[in-house]
Amino acid sequence: MSARSIFTALALLAATASAPLAQDNDTPPEAPLPETADADAAPAVSVDAGVTLTSRFIYRGINLGQAPQVQPSLALNVGDFQAAVWSSHPVARPSDQSAETLAGAGNYREVNVWLLYNLDVGVGTLTPYVQNHYNPNNGPFFDLDNETTAHAFQGQLTFRGDERSAPVDAMVGYVFFGNDDADVVGSVYLEGGYSFDVSGLAMRAFAGGVPGRSPFNGVTESRAQITNVGLSASRDIRLSDEFSLPLGVQFVVNPYTEDAFAAVSVSL
Fold first, then answer.
1. Are 190 and 174 in contact (CB under 8 A)?
2. pLDDT in tens, 76-119
C-alpha cells in the first residue's frame, strides 16, 4: 500500500470515526432544525434510534440478499448536522443457502456510517454527506488497505424540495475510495424523484441510473444505463393515541438487468 493510499485511508477514517444510522433510497432523514432563529442560541441536540424490518433490501435497483433483513439505526443530530450509523442484517438464511456459501448473497450484511449537513436553500434542503459502506462478509472493519478493504466511501449531494411548492428530490453519488480489485472507485449514480399523496398514502415515483461504467452500482458496461425505476408508498398505521406503526411498500424495476422486485417494510 503506497504512502499516499495510507494517508487517504487514515483521513477518511478520521472523517467518519465520530459518526456512530441508502433506506430504500438515497435520501437521508432530515436533521431537525433548531427551535429558535437566535444566532446566539445553542443548536438543538437530539438522538434518534429505530429499527426497520424489510422483506428485501433493495438498493438502487439491486436486490441485496435473498432473505428478510432487520435494519437498526442510531443518529445524533446537532442543529443541521447529523452523525449516524445504520446496518442491515438477514433475520434468517434461505433454506437453500448452504453453510459453505453463507457469506454469499443470502447472508448479505452491511454497516453504514455517515456525516451530513442540511442546508436550507429557500425552495428546499440541500444535503451534502459522506457515507462509508462496509460489508462484514468481505473483510475486517479496520482494514483500510485499498487492495483488501471491505469499505467503500461515497460522497453524495441530495436536494429535497419543499413538500408543498416543489415536492421533488434529486441526488448524485460518487465513490472515491474502495477495494482496487472491486474497481468501484469512480462509480457515479444519479436519481430523481417526485412525491405526492393519494388517499392518505405518501407516494414517491423515482428513476435512477449511471452515466457510464459504475461497478458499485452493478453496471460494468461503458455507457449510460437506467437501473432503478419504481414507486414507493408509505403510511402510518395508528394503533393507539400515542403509537403508530409506519408501513412501507415499494415496487422496483431494473431495466439494465431486466429484474423486478417488490418489498414491504415496517418500522419502530
1. no
2. 999 999 999 999 999 876 555 444 344 445 688 999 999 999 99
Q: Please identify which residue in the block is written with the cell numbers 443530530.
A: 77
Cα(85)–Cα(185) distance, integer angstroms: 22
What pTM does this model have? Answer: 0.82
Distance CA 176, CA 184 (A): 8
**Rg of the chain over all Cα atoms, to the nearest angstrom:** 19
Q: Is 142 exposed, middle or buried (0-12, 13-18, 19+ CB in 10 A)?
A: exposed
Which cell numbers hold the place of 258? 431486466
DSSP code per residue over 24-77: -SS-PPPPPPPS---TTSPPPEEEEEEEEEES--EETTEE--SS-EEEEEEEEE
Spell out the domains of the chain, with CATH numbers in brackets: 3-267 (2.40.160.40)
Q: What is the Cα–Cα distance from 65 to 53, expressed in whole angstroms?
A: 14
SS3 (DSSP) at 136: helix
Separation CA 71–CA 51 (nearest Å): 5
